[in-house]
Amino acid sequence: MRAFFAAIEQGTASVRLADCAPPLAPHEHAALRDAGILRPEGREGIDELSAPDLARALRVLYDVAGRGLHVPVRLSRDPFLLGWAGEGESEREVLLLAGPGTALSLALLRSRRALLLLPTARLLTPELRAKHHRDAFLAIDVLEESLTARDGRLARAHARAPSAPDLSLLSAALAPAPAPLPASSLSPSPSSLPPSPSPRAIPGASRWNEIRISRIDATTVRIDLPGVSVRRTHTDLGMAHHKSRAPKRVWLLLLELCDHHGIFQSHAFGSADATKKLVSRLGEELGAVFGLPDSPFHPYRPSEGWQARFQAEPRLPYGE
Fold first, then answer.
1. pLDDT band at residue 245, thresholds of 50, 70 and 90?
2. Of 109, 115, 248, nearest in space to 177 by CA
3. What is the pTM of this model?
4. Which of 12, 103, 245, 320 stands 20 to 30 A from 89 (CA)?
5. Which helix H or strand E contains 246, and what residues bound it?
6. Cα(245)–Cα(141) distance, rounded to whole angstroms?
7. Cis ω on the peptide bond leading into residue 22 (within 30° of 0)?
8. Can you list the pairs that 160-166 forms with residues at least 24 positions away whose Cβ atoms lie under 8 Å?
């Protein structure tokens, strides 16, 4: 059922059965239909994908207590909390990560025990598998490996899927920073040190609402302001770790703002206090880039979350 889970990962609302490669076996299609996850869409060879029924099926298969949580109306780019599994000290949150690599990066920052459900193993490197095994504080389970069709019904199984490349960007982004050298170590000459990433000033805006930041991919945005249109990576903007060049949390927050049109209302970065500090850090970083002294964020309101004063978009404007 790899093609089906790949469709979940892409956030599609319907599945064209002829495009599934490898194709869904008849008993797999029947099991997904039986669970209500796939439903006739009205056109031959196309099934509608039901996010609410997918969530309900996963709760049953993973013995998850919803405790009054609503099921998702549609698949989201953000980690979605299905509920809780286990009891006492073994209790853990169970989250569905139907979005891109950013969702996994955010989920792996959580401070509570959790089971993270990935549709496919596309982003799962051998290092991540080893670190986030079944009994880890943050465990990862891959749906294409763990779910199968048995006797006409969905069931749990375990068939290892191919891992992502060892040197993927996501693996580097989540790797711990190297331990500092002891003080007694010989200091390298300045010429042998890698250049330090530093923010590149982008002058031209007199106020925040003249700036538009559009997401291009996991490491690049386009920045538009009066008379200027440039592409910048997390390294260009000084939002990369000095040695590993992995994206910092402030970059992940910037992508979240782009994905949600300048609004952030999630607990993906921890407690309210931790989020406030991260928002403040991002504000300082952006202030240094654009040379604007005031905050790039409106005052926080519980009903509205954090809202950017600049324009933030999940993709480039239409036609560009």
1. confident
2. 248
3. 0.54
4. 103
5. none
6. 28
7. yes
8. 161/2, 161/120, 161/121, 162/121, 163/121, 163/124, 163/125, 163/126, 163/129, 164/121, 164/122, 164/123, 164/124, 164/125, 165/125, 166/125, 166/126, 166/127
